Every structure is written in C-alpha cells, then in structure tokens.
Amino acid sequence: MSGWRQGGSGKAARGLISVGAALAAMLAIGCAKEPTTMKAEMTPEQKIARGRQITYTSACHDCHTPGGLYGAPDSTRLLSGSELGWEGPWGVSFPRNLTPDMETGIGSWSEDDIVTAIRTGIRPDHTPIMPPMPWPMYSHLSDDDAHAIAAFLKSLPPVVHKAPDKIPPGTKVSVPRLTFPPPPAWDAQNLPKAP
What we know:
By secondary structure, this protein is mainly α. It has one domain (about 45-185): Cytochrome Bc1 Complex, Chain D, domain 2 (Orthogonal Bundle). It contains eight helices and three strands. The longest helix has 25 residues, at about 10-30. The protein is globular and about 50 Å long. The N and C termini lie far apart (about 90 Å). Residues about 1-5 and about 20-35 have low confidence and may be disordered.
C-alpha cells in the first residue's frame, strides 16, 4: 500500500490538480474580460477589396460588365452596364452602369442608397430594379458585405455609358437580348404578376 502512495499515482494526482488550477485561472481571466462581439472594423482598402471579391463571386460582372456573358469581360469598362437586354414578362431590361459617373451611373448615390438598392430592389428615386437582378438573394448580405460592395462601386473609375431604357412588355423589339420564356406551370404557381 505504501508503494501505491509514493508511486506514479501521486504524481498524476498532483498533475491533475495543477491542470485544474490552470484551467480555473484561465476561466477567471476569460470571464473578467469584456465580451468581444464586434469584429475589428475593416480599413477602407480592406472594405474595397472585400467588395471587389463579392462582386466577382456574386456574378455582378457577368451582366454589368460589357462582354461578361461572352466570357471576355472588358476590364477597361468594369460594371459600366451592358446593351445586351433581358426579355421576360417585365419587358426588356438592361444591366445599368454601376460606376460612379454622375450622369449615366450611380455617382450621385450614397453608400446607403447603393446598399438599399442591392437589398430591396428599389433605387433612390423609388423606381424598381427590374429582373433578372437577383436582389432577393442579395437581401441576405451582411451589413459589412453590402457596404463593402458599395465602397467598391464608389471606388471604380467613372465610365460614361447610359444603358438603354427598359422596353415595356408587348413592344416589338429588335435589340440583342436573352429571352426568358414564360415560366412552366410548376415555377409559376406562386409568382406575382409581372410589373
């Protein structure tokens, strides 16, 4: 029995007590600190870089950069709008100029205006953004990500390009466009009426 008390088990017990004391001290120190629920704020450069990344991974360039849907986006006119229309029950809409040009782009929009448009599909003048802009998907962006996109768009060189105006449904058109057929019965079950 005396061999048991002096053997390795005594060292193990002292080791467990030491580990327990260390864990208790770490817990006490951790609880004494203020909770850190806020992330470190991004620098302006990081915010723009994050916005650039999101615009590429969210397919903004596919529609809004000339040549994007042809596999050859024009890097000299990033996000300056396209004249390739999208035809559907809403008529024909065209991807707008997202550069900060004051006359033909979104140069007069604030960062908050951009965030609201991305998330709600409503422009600062209260007009709706037409399909196929997937704003319902973008409505789930975090505040940081939505504002990062806006900061990136504001950082672009302005490009003068007025995208064609929307063409109402039922109008005969000859412009280059991608056409969405009427939705099949399954897809149309709960769709709202076209604008």
